[in-house]
Q: What sequence folds into this?
C-alpha cells in the first residue's frame, strides 16, 4: 500500500442527526459508506482528504421501501441488497441489472448506491440508471432536507451540487413506465470498470414514443442524452439518432478505451436500445 | 473495540481506518488471508463478515465492530472445500486459494456451475485456468 492512514481521522456518529451535525460543525469531512473506492485511492497513494465520517452503522440510511408512489432507496443500500430486492426487480429491473455487473460478490456486499453517486465517477454503473429513471437525490443537512433531481445533480467532473455539510441519505424514484434497458460494455462481466454504461426507458404515451436514455463513461459527468431522446421520440431515423448521440457525448482516451471506440459503441448502443427496448 | 474472529473474541487496538486485512494478519497473527492487489480486484484477501464475503483490503476495522469474522484458519483444515481443493488440483501456487475457498463458503447449498462462476468472479487465479477450482467446489458442495 502506497498511502498511509497515519494522520488521518475517522469520526463515528451514532445517528443520522449526529452525522449531519458533525458535517456542519467539524467539517470538512468525507463520508464513508462501503469504502470500496476509498481504499483504492489510499492504495495508489492518491487519497488527499484526511478526515472522514463513518456512516456504515447508520441503519436509518439502509433499506428499500415504497412510499406513496415512489420507490425509496436508502443511500447505504448495497448492490447485493438491490439485486435481492423484489421491489427493485419488479419496479426498477435496470437497477438490479446494473448492480449485478458491479465488481464481484465481495464488492457487491459492501459497495452502496449512495457511495456510487457520491464518488461521482463518470463511469459509475448506477448513475445512468438513476438518470434515466428520473430519480431524485435526497440530501440532508443539520437544518433540513433538500431534494435535487439526478439530472441536475452533477455540475462537472466529480463535482455535484451537494454542499460539504450535506449528506446523501437516499433516492426517490417515481414509477417508471415502459420497457427498461441496461447495458455495460467492459472487458469482462465482473470486476471491470465500464468503457461505456447505458440505461434507457422506452415509454409510450397515447401512441407517442417518449424514450429516456442516459450514458456513463462518455463525458466528464454521466449524461442524460436529451437530444438523442428527442430524435428517437420524434420519429427521426435511427441513423440520424446515432449521429446525434455521437455529437452529444464528449468521450476521451483513457486506460480503458479510446474516444473513437466510445463514439462508435455509443452509436451501436443507441441502435440496440432502439431495436430492443421499443418492442411491445 | 471487540470483534469475534473464528469464534474467539478479540480486542483490537488498531487505528479505526486500519484495513481488516492488516488487523487479521498483523494483530491476530492469522496470515492465511493473503494480500494480492490491495484494491479489491483479486479477492485473495476474502474473509466472511457475518457470513458475507468481503475483500478485507477494503474494509476499515471500525466497520467490523461487534461482527463475526471467519478466515481460512476458521475452517479448521479439513473442511470439505479445503479437502476438495487438495484432491482435485484446485490449489497450485496457493496465493488465491484462501480467498477462493472463503468466497466458495458463501455460495448457497449445491450451487450450479453458473452460480459458482458468478460467486467466484471476484477472485482471480493465474495458475489453474479456473476449471480445477470449479471442479473442486462442485465436488465439495455435492458431498
A:
Amino acid at each position: 500500500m502506497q498511502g498511509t492512514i497515519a494522520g488521518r481521522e475517522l469520526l463515528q456518529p451514532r445517528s443520522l442527526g449526529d452525522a449531519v451535525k458533525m458535517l456542519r460543525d467539524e467539517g470538512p469531512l468525507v463520508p464513508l459508506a462501503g469504502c470500496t473506492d476509498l481504499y483504492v485511492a489510499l492504495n495508489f497513494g492518491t487519497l488527499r482528504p484526511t478526515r472522514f465520517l463513518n456512516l456504515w452503522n447508520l441503519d436509518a440510511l439502509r433499506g428499500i421501501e415504497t412510499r406513496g408512489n415512489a420507490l425509496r432507496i436508502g443511500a447505504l443500500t448495497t448492490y447485493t441488497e438491490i439485486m435481492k430486492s423484489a421491489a427493485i426487480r419488479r419496479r426498477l429491473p435496470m437497477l438490479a441489472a446494473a448492480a449485478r455487473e458491479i465488481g464481484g460478490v465481495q464488492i457487491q456486499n459492501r459497495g452502496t448506491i449512495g457511495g456510487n453517486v457520491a464518488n461521482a465517477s463518470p463511469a459509475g454503473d448506477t448513475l445512468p440508471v438513476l438518470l434515466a429513471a428520473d430519480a431524485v437525490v435526497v440530501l440532508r443537512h443539520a437544518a433540513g432536507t433538500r431534494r435535487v433531481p439526478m439530472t441536475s445533480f452533477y455540475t462537472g467532473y466529480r463535482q455535484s451540487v451537494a454542499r460539504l455539510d450535506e449528506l446523501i441519505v437516499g433516492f426517490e424514484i417515481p414509477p417508471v413506465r415502459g420497457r427498461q434497458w441496461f447495458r455495460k460494455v467492459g472487458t469482462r462481466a465482473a470486476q471491470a470498470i465500464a468503457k461505456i454504461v447505458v440505461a434507457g426507458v422506452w415509454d409510450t404515451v397515447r401512441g407517442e414514443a417518449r424514450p429516456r436514455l442516459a450514458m456513463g463513461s462518455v463525458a466528464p459527468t454521466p449524461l442524460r442524452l436529451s437530444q438523442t431522446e428527442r430524435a428517437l421520440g420524434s420519429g427521426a431515423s435511427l441513423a440520424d439518432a446515432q449521429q446525434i448521440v455521437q455529437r452529444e457525448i464528449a468521450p476521451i482516451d483513457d486506460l480503458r478505451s479510446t474516444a473513437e471506440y466510445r463514439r462508435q459503441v455509443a452509436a451501436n448502443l443507441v441502435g440496440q436500445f432502439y431495436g430492443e427496448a421499443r418492442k411491445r | 473495540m471487540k470483534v469475534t474472529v473464528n469464534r474467539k473474541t478479540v480486542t483490537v487496538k488498531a487505528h479505526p481506518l486500519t484495513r481488516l486485512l492488516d488487523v487479521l494478519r498483523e494483530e491476530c497473527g492469522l496470515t492465511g488471508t493473503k494480500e494480492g492487489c490491495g484494491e479489491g480486484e483479486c479477492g485473495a484477501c476474502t474473509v466472511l463478515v457475518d457470513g458475507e464475503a468481503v475483500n478485507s483490503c477494503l474494509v476499515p476495522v471500525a466497520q467490523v465492530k461487534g461482527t463475526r469474522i471467519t478466515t481460512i484458519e476458521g475452517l479448521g483444515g479439513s473442511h470439505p472445500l479445503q479437502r476438495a481443493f487438495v484432491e482435485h488440483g484446485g490449489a497450485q501456487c496457493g496465493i488465491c486459494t484462501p480467498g477462493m475457498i472463503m468466497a466458495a463458503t458463501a455460495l448457497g447449498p449445491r450451487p450450479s456451475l453458473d452460480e459458482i462462476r458468478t460467486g467466484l468472479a471476484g477472485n482471480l487465479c493465474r495458475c489453474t485456468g479456473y476449471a480445477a477450482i470449479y471442479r473442486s467446489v462442485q465436488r465439495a458442495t455435492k458431498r
Remarks:
- Chain A has three domains: 9-54, 59-173, 179-277.
- The first strand of chain A starts at residue 9 and ends at 11.
